[in-house]
Amino acid sequence: MIYGYLAVMLISMNRSSTAAIEPPRLNQRAPGNEAAPGNADFAALKRRDNLTNWLYLGGVWAIIAATILSALALEAYIASEGLHWGWTVLVVATAALITGASQHNLGGAVHEGTHGLLFNNKILNELASDWLAAFPIYTSTYQYRVQHFAHHQFVNDPVRDPDISQLKDSNHWLDFPIVQWDILRALLRQLWLPNLMLYTLVRARYSSVGHEGNPYLSETQRRHGWPTKIGLGFAIGSAFLVNFVLVSTTSVWAAHATIIGAYVATIAYFAFLPEEKFPQSRLQPVISHRATMIGRMTFLFVIYWGLTALDAGTGTLTHWNTFGRYWVIPLFTTFPLYMMMRQWVQHGNADRGRFTNTRVFFFGPMLRYAVFPWGMDYHLPHHVMAAVPHYNLKALHTALVARDPEYAAKGIEIEGIWHAPHMHDDQAPSVAKRPLRQSLMYALSLRHEGPSTERAHVDNTTLEGTVIADRAAIDQIAAASAAAREEVRRTG
Questions:
Q1: CA separation for the pair 477, 473 (Å, rounded)
Q2: How far apart are CA 392 and CA 389, in angstroms?
Q3: Cβ atoms within 10 Å, residue 176
Q4: Which of 264, 265, 256, 288 is closest to 275 using CA atoms?
Q5: Taking the CB of residue 116, how many other CB atoms lie within 10 A of it?
Q6: Please, which residues bridge with residue 362 across strands?
Q7: What is d(CA 201, CA 194) in angstroms, rounded to the nearest whole number?
Q8: pTM for the complete prediction?
Q9: Within 10 Å of residue 28's Cβ, how many Cβ atoms?
Q10: Percent composition of the chain: helix, strand, coil (DSSP 3-state, to 5)
Q11: How would you class 235 by CB atoms within 10 Å of its CB: exposed for 0-12, middle for 13-18, buried for 19 or more?
C-alpha cells in the first residue's frame, strides 16, 4: 500500500505540464527559419517564472520524504515482528530504486538551473539550484555548468564533449552501433557495485577538476588542487572522523567539538583564500566561487551536525547509518545507473547534426521519473532551443514538427524498448510530416551506411547570457570542432 501510494505520486509528478497548461500560441511563418533560436515567435515558450518549479521541487522532495519514512516504518515493523533480516535488505533495495530516481530528479533540477531555467531571477535560480538540488547530491550548479555547456556546444564531438570522454574514462562507453544483447550485457555489468562507484568517482572528478579536453578551461587558468582537496576532506573525511568519535566515546562534547572544529577550520581556509585560487574556467560564476564553496560546506555541516547531535552520547551510529542506507547507498548505486542509462540512449549511435544528435522519447511515467526527469525525454527540442524550460518542451516539439520540415524529416522519436507500436523508418507520404519513430533497441543497433552526411552542429548559442572570459579562444575551438567534422564528412 505504501509503495502503491508512491507510484501514484510518481505518475502525478510525471504528467506533462502542457496537459494542464495550454501551449502558447505561435504565429505562423513561412518555411525556412522556423527553428532559428531566438525567433520572436518562440518567446512565449521561453518564458519562465519564479513559481512553477517550486511545485516540481516540492514534489521531488515529498517523494524522497515519503520513501525514507515508509522504509523506516517498514524496518520498525520487521524488527517488531522478528522477521528475517532479508526483508530489511529488500526494503533498503526498494527504497534505493526510488530514492536514486529522486536524486536523478534533483540532477534534472540542477540541469534546469544550469541553463537559467529554474527561476526567472538569476540569483534565486542559482541559490535554489545549489541548496535544493546540487548540494544534496554533492555537486554545484557552476561545476555542472562548465561540463554541461561544453556538451551542448560541442555535442557528440569525440574530443570536446565531456559526456563522451567521461564515459570513456570510466570504461562505460559503448561502441555504437551495438547489438541488442550487448546492450543488455553492458547494463547487467553495471549492477556490479565497483562499476557504479567508478562511474560516480570519475564523474565527480570531472565536476571538480574538469578534463583537459574541456574548451572552457585554459592553460592560464590552471585549477588549484588544494581547494578541491580541502572540500573533499570535509565532505568525506569529517564524516569518517566524527563517526569514529561517536563509537569511541559517549562524550557528547567530543562529538560536537569534532564536527564543529572541522567546519570552522574548513570555512576559515575558504574565507581567506584569494578568489583567483579557487577552481576557474572561462565561464564567470553567477555567485562567487568563495560564496558557493562556503555554502556547500555549510550545507553539509548542517546535515552532519544534525546526525551527530542525534547520535552523540549513545555510542551508536543509528542516525548516521540511516543516512548511509537511504541516501549514500542510492547516491552510489541507482542514481549513477539511471544517469548512465540516460546518457547511453540520448546520444548513443547519433551523429553531430543539428536535428540528428539526439532524440525524443515516449515512455511511461515510472521510466520518465527514473531515467528522463524534468523534460529529458524531449531531448531533441532541448538541444535545438536550450532556452525553453522543461515544462514547455513538449509544446516546442509539437511546434517544430508542424512548422519545420527539416526537423520533422530528420528528427527521431523513440517509442518502446524492443518494438515501437507506431514504428516507421521511411519517409512515405503518409508519414512525411512526422519524425521517424523507432524502438529504442532499433535506434541503438542501427548500422549507418558510411559516414554521416550531416554537417556538424556547433551550438554557439549555448553561451548566450553567460559572462565569458576570452571568448575569442572559445570561438577558435568552435571553428576547429566544426572544421574537423567537415573534413571527415567531405572525405568520407
A1: 6
A2: 6
A3: 17
A4: 288
A5: 23
A6: 415
A7: 10
A8: 0.87
A9: 9
A10: 65, 5, 35
A11: middle
